[in-house]
């Protein structure tokens, strides 16, 4: 008999959040102090609510983090919440190289999908091996880490926790990931591995500066099984307007299992954020992280930050909204959700 499988929604109870810490060998080298400030803010916020798993290639920095963050947790009566593991890494995007955990009749299984840096855009070999380092260090306890010959990034899929997966065709169907698989074959992979019996495909959606081929976690997110929030651009002169308007229309056409339309909430559209070379960067409020009792919201030092905080509080009235300045992260074309990966309750037991 086949075991029932489900990819939990992000709001399901968690045991820990995983961070792959930046080091001088990554693309963050020129901005390391300001980027580490962002990571430290994320780490401290997570520690108030659950455990934290940190890996880092530089052992001395990892030891310092272990001391400092454990002290922070202990001062708040939360000892033992920091787990650290030395491990090589090319970069810091834990959402995409971290394990994707499914819940089965036999317990949690951590799926180690292949990671090829969004279709071979950058070096990826260390990142692709990182989950095995964590497993060998005992981070996941007795829960199995299962290696799969299928390229899939956590940022490319959204789950309602009830068998529906939301994704984008721009990402999952790009030939640089799984070139031998068409849409039907990829849906079968999502069914077999994640228990997805419905896949909602967005064929539109775009953010300038995005390296991921339109990851769903920058565009549209489940905030309840019947509710999706999404990025909307009200400025008809903006390069994003047409693609995001088309995405909005697709979302309006989606139906729940009961045939009803989804409740939809448009997120604020931040003023443009540009890199040092004048390139527009993918700043988006959709890249939030839901944790136990809180939502960590990326903000960018623009006037719309205040509105975004208010909108998220309406979406998650029973959770604390914790804004974190993620402007340094978007210089490398990602944001808060991209550098984190949650692990469901029971997986991490320090």
Automatic annotation (TrEMBL):
Pfam families: PAD_porph (PF04371)
Keywords, in A-Z order: Hydrolase
Highest taxon of source: Bacteria
One GO-annotated biological process of the protein: putrescine biosynthetic process
Keyword Ubl conjugation listed: no
Transmembrane segments: none
InterPro entries: Peptidyl-Arg-deiminase_porph
GO MF, one example: protein-arginine deiminase activity
Protein's name in the database: Agmatine deiminase
Biological classification of the source: Bacteria, Pseudomonadati, Pseudomonadota, Gammaproteobacteria, Pseudomonadales
């Amino acid at each position: 008999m086949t075991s029932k499988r489900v990819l939990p929604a992000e709001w399901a109870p968690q045991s820990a959040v995983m961070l792959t810490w930046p080091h001088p060998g990554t693309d963050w080298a020129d901005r390391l102090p300001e980027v580490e400030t962002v990571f430290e803010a994320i780490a401290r916020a997570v520690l108030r609510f659950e455990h934290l798993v940190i890996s880092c290639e530089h052992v001395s920095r990892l030891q310092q983090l272990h001391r400092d963050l454990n002290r922070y947790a202990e001062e708040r009566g939360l000892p033992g919440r920091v787990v650290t593991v030395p491990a090589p890494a090319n970069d810091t995007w834990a959402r995409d190289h971290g394990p994707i955990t499914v819940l089965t009749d036999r317990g949690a299984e951590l799926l180690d999908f292949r990671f090829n840096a969004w279709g071979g855009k950058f070096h990826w070999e260390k990142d692709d091996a990182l989950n095995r380092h964590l497993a060998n260090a005992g981070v996941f306890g007795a829960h199995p880490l299962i290696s799969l010959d299928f390229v899939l990034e956590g940022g490319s899929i959204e789950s309602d926790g009830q068998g529906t997966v939301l994704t984008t065709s721009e990402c999952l169907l790009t030939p640089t990931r799984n070139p031998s698989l068409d849409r039907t074959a990829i849906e079968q992979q999502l069914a077999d591995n994640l228990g997805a019996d419905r896949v909602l495909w967005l064929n539109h959606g775009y953010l300038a500066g995005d390296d991921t081929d339109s990851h769903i976690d920058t565009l549209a997110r489940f905030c309840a099984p019947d509710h999706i929030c999404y990025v909307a651009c009200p400025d008809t002169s903006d390069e994003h307007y047409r693609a995001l308007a088309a995405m909005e229309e697709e979302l309006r056409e989606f139906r729940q299992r009961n045939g009803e339309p989804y409740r939809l909430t448009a997120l604020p559209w931040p003023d443009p954020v540009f890199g040092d070379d004048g390139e527009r960067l993918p700043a988006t409020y959709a890249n939030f992280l839901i944790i136990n009792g809180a939502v960590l919201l990326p903000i960018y030092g623009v006037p719309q930050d205040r509105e975004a905080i208010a909108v998220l509080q309406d979406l998650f009235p029973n959770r604390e909204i914790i804004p974190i300045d993620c402007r340094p992260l978007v210089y490398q074309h990602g944001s808060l959700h991209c550098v984190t990966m949650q692990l469901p309750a029971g997986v991490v037991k320090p």
